[in-house]
Amino acid sequence: MGLATQLTGGLALLVGGLSIPLRDAAVRMSGAPPQAFTTVIAYTTVLFVVAEALSLPLRFYRSFVLERRYGLSAVPVRTWIRDHVKAFVIGFVIALAAAGIVYGAMAAWPRWWWAVCAVAFSAAILVLARVAPVLLMPLFYRFKPLDRQALRARLETLSARAGLPVLGVYEWGLGERTTRANAALVGTGRSRRILLSDTLLADYTDDEIEVILAHELGHHANRDIRTGLLLESAMIAIGMGAAAAALHALWKPLGLHGPADVAGLPLVLLAAGLVSLVARPALNALSRRNEHRADRFALELTERPDAFVSAMRRLASQNLAEARPSAATLWLFHTHPPFEQRIEAAKSSHGLHG
Predict the structure, then answer these.
(1) Which residues are within 8 A (CB) of 104 and not within 5 positions of it... i.e. 6 or more apart?
(2) How open is the CA angle 46-51-55, to the nearest 5 degrees?
(3) Angle at 226 between CA 222 and CA 227, to 5 degrees
(4) In this structure, how many other beta carbons lie within 10 angstroms of the beta carbon of residue 353?
(5) Alpha-carbon distance 330 to 325, whole Å?
(6) Could you give phi then psi for residue 71, rounded to 5 degrees?
(7) Considering the entire predicted model, what is its pTM?
(8) What is the pLDDT of residues 225-242, one digit of tens each?
């Protein structure tokens, strides 16, 4: 939904000629030229607030109404609003920082601004990947050390066997917001932490939890996280390069004062979004391959194919996963293989039947 909003919003502003009046309003608010920092902040603020207001009804329907309708959430509306306000503030701060970096780079390096932005945004992603589990996730979820000593010791031993020692094992208060079950291995190096949702701990056997965690360990052992960050950095560089090319070619036809005119921000978002859209099927295919590889790692590490199969069936049922999506749906939207495909692969590799 975020990418769709980015693309349609950018197109509407450019084709509808709305970006220039919005820029003029930002100039009046700031009392500065279109490329000035204060104008950039004013323009970005109005753009972000308008985009948020337009997307709010669909977001509410998708993440609140539908979740409750299908029994995936019992969150009261006040909690949804509180979480949404937190997310809005975080997103707003990030948007202002990103716009400031883009137009600051344009002013300092008119020819190579896109490369400077690519480096800066890639560095920001690396930082966020490290601090998000410690600083951002606790804003939305409750965490506490796992009080099941036997399971904690078992999972720490499993992590050590995989060559990925962890700092600790924590219960993740996911059940306050959803009925879904989940597990994660977050952080890097000595800061790795195991997160187990309370919904997982309540309904799954220790064998099933172990094999689910082993899958997450597989992603770290296979360096999928690092590869994902490198690919994301490459996509940022390509997207910013496409944005620079688009601004260079279209600033005059669009009636901008120059490539650094803040009214061109929707074009930057549109160009970067189109790059992401074009690359998404290939990135999804790579992600599905990595998921299969992590499954194999989990089965080899735990030697518990029966627990893997039962865990997959439970997760699919509990999270309302689509059993057999169409080829087009799989190609365009799915980062994970269908659960039936994962189960069949586990059965065939370990000689299971039924």
Answers:
(1) 37
(2) 150
(3) 80
(4) 4
(5) 6
(6) 75, 20
(7) 0.89
(8) 999 999 999 999 999 999
For 102, 126, 182, the CA distances from 264, given in Å and listed in that order, are 11, 27, 41
Which structure tokens are listed for 213?
Answer: 């965690």
DSSP 277-330: HHHHHHHHHHHHHHHHHHHHHHHHHH--HHHHHHHHHHHHHHTT--SS--HHHH
C-alpha 334/C-alpha 341 separation (Å) is 13
Contacts 24+ apart (CB under 8 A), 13-19: 13/266, 14/254, 14/266, 14/267, 14/270, 19/254, 19/263, 19/264, 19/265, 19/266
Cα dihedral 89, 228, 122, 36, rounded to 10, equals -50
pLDDT tens-digit profile of 3-30? 556 566 666 777 667 888 999 999 999 9
CB atoms within 10 A of CB 211: 28
- Two tokens, residue 296: 């194999």
Phi, psi of 136 (to 5 degrees): -95, -45
Map tokens 């993740």 to a residue: 172
Intra-chain end-to-end CA distance of the chain, in Å: 39
Residue 225: Cβ-neighbour burial (10 angstroms; 0-12, 13-18, 19+):
middle
For 13, the enclosing helix (H) or strand (E) is: helix 2-15
Distance CA 61, CA 45 (A): 25
Nearest to 106 by CA among 97, 116, 96, 98: 116
Q: How far, in Å, CA of 165 to CA of 225, rounded? A: 16
